[in-house]
């Protein structure tokens, strides 16, 4: 999932990708997602295959059409409680209108179906990634709003120079409901 925080209150779900792929393909997809959206943090659950993924993404990922390794600002997430507990903990943010979904997106029907059917839906990974992000953003809101470590600038400098990547405007949230 790619979610953009605007200010300290509004969260815009920009994109969702879900698929079962081999590990090398997962790294490639994450690198492409990163290059498309340039998030300040890439959150990865620090369990099972996530542990290896965290290490490799921090070291850098090579893409065929990109001249150097893509280094991402990876944050290891250790979720607390069950998936249901985490979803309940962040549900007030949905109720308060702080989470925005696009009006139209190819993934939206599946996402909403899983979200509204949780915890009885067949899948729960999209709900879980969303709740982990919202929980992390809530607990780190002071850091997001008022502090800068310079890490983002160094990561952007590492990835500068790829003319084929178009950066999406950070203030273009038209089409969100």
Automatic annotation (TrEMBL):
Q: Locate the region Disordered.
A: 154-177
Q: Name one Pfam family in it.
A: Terminase_6C
UniProt xrefs under InterPro entries: Phage_terminase_lsu-like_C, Terminase_6C
Q: Residue ranges of the Terminase large subunit gp17-like C-terminal domain?
A: 20-134
Q: Which UniProt keywords apply?
A: Viral release from host cell
* Entry-linked NCBIfam families: psiM2_ORF9 (TIGR01630)
Task: Indicate what this protein is called per its UniProt record.
Answer: Phage terminase-like protein
Q: Which organism is it from?
A: Idiomarina xiamenensis 10-D-4
């Amino acid at each position: 999932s790619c979610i953009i925080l605007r200010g300290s209150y509004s969260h815009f779900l920009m994109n969702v990708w879900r698929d079962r792929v081999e590990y090398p393909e997962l790294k490639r997809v994450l690198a492409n997602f990163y290059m498309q959206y340039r998030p300040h943090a890439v959150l990865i659950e620090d369990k099972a295959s996530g542990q290896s993924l965290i290490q490799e993404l921090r070291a850098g990922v090579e893409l065929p059409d990109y001249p150097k390794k893509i280094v991402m600002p990876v944050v290891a997430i250790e979720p607390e409680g069950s998936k249901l507990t985490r979803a309940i903990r962040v549900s007030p943010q949905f109720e308060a209108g702080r989470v925005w979904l696009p009006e139209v997106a190819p993934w939206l029907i599946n996402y909403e179906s899983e979200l509204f059917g949780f915890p009885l839906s067949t899948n729960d990974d999209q709900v879980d990634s969303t709740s982990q992000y919202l929980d992390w953003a809530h607990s780190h809101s002071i850091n997001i709003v008022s502090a800068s470590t310079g890490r983002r600038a160094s990561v952007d400098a590492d990835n500068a120079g790829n003319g084929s990547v178009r950066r999406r405007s950070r203030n273009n949230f038209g089409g969100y409901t």
